[in-house]
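Onboarding guide, step 5: your first structure request.
Type a short instruction followed by the sequence, for example:

Predict the 3D structure of this protein.
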Amino acid sequence: MPAGIRAVTQLLIALDADPNAHNVGDLAVQAVRQAPPPTPDTADALAELSEVAGWILFEEERQPEAHHHNLTALALARTAGNRDLETLTLLTMSMQRAHVGRLTEALHLADHGESTTTSPRVRAMFALRRARAYSRMRLTSPALRALDQSRAALEDDPSAPPWAWWIDESELLAHHGAVLANLGRLPEALPLLPDNPGPRFREVVRAMRFRTLVALGEWTAPQPTFTSPRARRTAQLSSRHQPAPDGPATGRRGSI
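The system replies with structure tokens like these:
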């Protein structure tokens, strides 16, 4: 039975990477609902399924559902004793909570997540999460300090878990660009945000670049088309978030 659950999870991962895929979130929710109840034998596989569903729902801007599935994944990962999956879920949760404006919560999750791993690469990934949250708060010094710490993500790390594959130089530079843009340093941010095609989850980088060009007054063409709901929302010129209890609202130049 765990093998069947994992096969469904792998299918969802493949669909999430397809730029032409649509409504993958509905499939993810259905997969979780139709999965068997957790047992000692299935908790680990169900945790992974819920974590992937949470990420997909995050990408599709279904944020309450994403948060619910992340919490489920976290509980199941802890039940199964899967520390690597617990760490990954905390990494995703930190990004999702920052995305909806829960910036202090995002920082707490990043700090806690970093304490669950000894991998230098993964700890650097949590530093990226802190940098993004601090930059949304317009706290320049801690944001740049966390950004410096995140550079370790590119160092060789035999202890890194397999899921850390996606942190490469282009991904790291895009995060750096987003942090600088959030801090209002748009000319410095722009060269770090490439206009390259890629998996669906990286389409948001193209949206960041578009938004930065508009803010600089350097975009004169029609608005490009984005297939990812999160990329479409990122491309909007108005602020994405309402004021949150734990952090200020972001303005039109700083909510990438």
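Each response can be followed by summary notes, for example: The two ends are 41 Å apart (CA to CA).
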